[in-house]
Design a protein that fits this description.
single chain; 432 residues; alpha/beta; eight-stranded mixed β-barrel; three-stranded antiparallel sheet; 13 helices; 13 strands; 16% strand; globular
């Protein structure tokens, strides 16, 4: 049986230069491995809570030394020397449940979700090494499946909102390479559109290459519609057919411009019904096949209307609405609020709880997009998780910056080793 000998952690920096946590798990067998966890900028209120130091004189209060100490002291004292079951799923579950019980808060705020997740993933990687299996194979065993395909990529092209300078309220316009049958061809097509878009922005706006948090371009568009239209133009100028070769996804992140039951999307605030109509117009005018957080996380009563209005033209994806939280997923299933989950493991705090969210979404017939965060590290475990858990899509930011490329490069390696095909787009979209 696997037995933890020691848990250690330290504060490191994420892709935005802000602190995060890296943990190392050493088993009594001598096998040791580490894992680093991400941090989001666009966060939902129902997310598990990171533990931050709160010292205004150091990283403006964002330090993670307290979270690292949660691992070095509390978690190490409670878990070192404890024997875990031989069965992979049982061992991971017992470890995660022990950390949840030790924290004893509903949002993991005592020890910190960043500390708990770092240990959860570090143990997974260490146990996978001890079992001599690839990490994606270990993750697959946690959800009792055999990996047999690769996720379709959804790649940031343009960013606004909290990921950029807020020049437009919506957060991201994403490329979805529809005709690509491999990760390799998807990345090659994305690269061509990205470079074409950069050249187009320089000609039109005189703007040099500036990147947002996740590596996307941040053109000075005046409206969200202008940004979406610019994406279509970039696809065409790169020699692809919009909606056939490459479609679009939109991360609206509507919670961040929702004030007094109105959406401040432009000069004239919109009520929920008008916001739904605006999204419907975008779907009519542009090749959009995925709409993420089209309404605010607290606007529950209108989400079923959004789902009904969009119908089978696009995925209706819940991120801030759901926060990878089983209670919120259950409510969304019961009310018909959406048909796709954006799964972010650090929103819920352990692999075991995230696996439960995945199971609920699949039982409802939903699509699942596994997503990283705006503050990432060069750790590539999220790519293995997307493969192991059979995600329909992988949302990993843009095709630039080492914290993004590490995960794309990991997918290329897995593709080379296995020759699996890329997942077909879910049938909920007529444009697939």
């Amino acid at each position: 049986m696997p037995k933890i000998q020691r848990l250690t952690a330290r504060e490191i920096l994420d892709s935005r230069g802000r602190p995060t946590v890296s943990a190392t798990c050493t088993l009594e067998s001598g096998v040791s491995a580490s894992a680093s966890v991400p941090s989001g900028a666009s966060t939902g209120r129902a997310e598990a809570r990171e533990l931050r130091d709160g010292d205004p004189d150091r990283y403006r209060g964002l330090g993670c030394r307290k979270a690292a100490q949660s691992v070095n002291l509390d978690l190490n004292a409670a878990l070192a020397g404890v024997g875990l079951p031989d069965a992979i799923e049982a061992a991971q579950s017992q470890l995660d449940q022990a950390m949840i019980a030790l924290d004893s808060t509903p949002d993991k705020s005592r020890l910190g979700a960043n500390a708990i997740l770092a240990v959860s993933v570090a143990f997974a990687r260490t146990n996978a090494l001890d079992q001599r299996m690839p990490l994606y194979g270990y993750f697959a065993q946690l959800v009792r499946r055999e990996p047999d395909y690769l996720p379709r990529l959804t790649v940031n092209l343009f960013s606004g909102g909290k990921h950029a300078g807020g020049q437009v309220p919506i957060q991201d316009v994403l490329l979805i390479p529809q005709s690509a049958a491999s990760i390799d061809s998807a990345l090659a097509a994305t690269y061509e559109v990205y470079q074409t878009a950069a050249e187009l922005i320089l000609r039109r706006y005189g703007m040099r290459l500036l990147r947002a948090d996740e590596g996307g371009l941040a053109p000075p568009c005046k409206t969200a519609a202008e940004m979406i239209a610019l994406a279509v133009e970039s696809i065409e100028e790169a020699g692809f057919v919009p909606g056939k070769d490459i479609a679009l996804g939109v991360d609206v992140a509507a919670s961040h411009f929702y004030r007094d039951e109105r959406y401040e999307l432009g000069k004239q605030p919109l009520d929920s019904r008008a916001m739904i109509d605006r999204l419907g117009n975008w779907l009519q005018d542009y090749p959009i096949i995925s709409v993420e957080d089209g309404l605010a996380e607290d606007d529950w009563q209108h989400w079923p209307g959004l789902r009904s209005a969009i119908g089978d033209k696009a995925l209706v994806v819940g991120d801030d609405l759901l926060c990878t939280n089983p209670d919120r997923i259950r409510r969304a299933v019961e009310t018909g609020a959406c048909n796709a989950l954006l799964l972010k493991v650090n929103q819920v705090g352990t692999l075991t709880e995230a696996a439960r969210a995945l199971e609920m979404a699949r039982a409802a017939g939903w699509a699942v997009s596994l997503s990283v965060r705006s503050g990432e590290t060069e750790d590539d475990w999220a790519a293995d998780l997307a493969v192991g858990w059979g995600a329909d899509q992988f949302k990993n930011g843009s095709i630039t910056q080492s914290e993004r490329l590490a995960k794309y490069n990991r997918l290329l390696f897995i593709e080379e080793q296995n020759r699996w095909a890329v997942r077909a787009w879910p049938r909920t979209s007529k444009r697939a």
